[in-house]
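As a warm-up, study this chain.
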Amino acid sequence: MAAQRTRGEQLEAFYGAVYYVATRPGEAAALKESDFILPSESEPEAWGEVLVSESHPEVGGGWTDSGKSHDERGLKHRARKAVRAVPVPPVYVRMVRAYIARFGVAPDGRLFRAVRGGRPTSNEYSEVWSEARKAVLSEQELRTALAEVPYSLRHAAISLWIKSGMDLVEAAYRVGHSLAVLYRFYAKLLKGGSAAANRLVELGLRAEE
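Now compare it with the structure written out below.
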């Protein structure tokens, strides 16, 4: 992603939020430096935490109270003041630190900005994503839905968590979903996990014999 010159370098950690923390792009755009609770630099393998509390979904200026191209609101499907605390893996802790050291933060504390200032727009981060996709995928892969949009990173994150055996209640909380929504969108993965669960039960039953 950083290969896409300055725009890619500035957006690399933005995409990282969508993948490593499974934020929605609108939530990533709203993140502030003060939302991160990072471990000491003397603990390079320690996890941090980020408090996700806002979302800046992009809509037409005529549809917002402020007239801006994006609206400022609470988390999707949550009470306006709802906050979810999401663990941050060491790899993203390092990415956030490197980003702040190089680019700093906006006057209002927001972490991510467009190259010319302001919040990252969907046009900008989608265009950079498209360029990166063309650079790494084959012609055949480009004709598929593989990593089609930046939001694909969030789906990839949730899929990884489920495949890794994360408790489903915990996974739903981290991404801001209900269990019902998680089951609906990731039913195929969850069904695949049933076989592994059955094997564990079978081993337990054998141990009791």
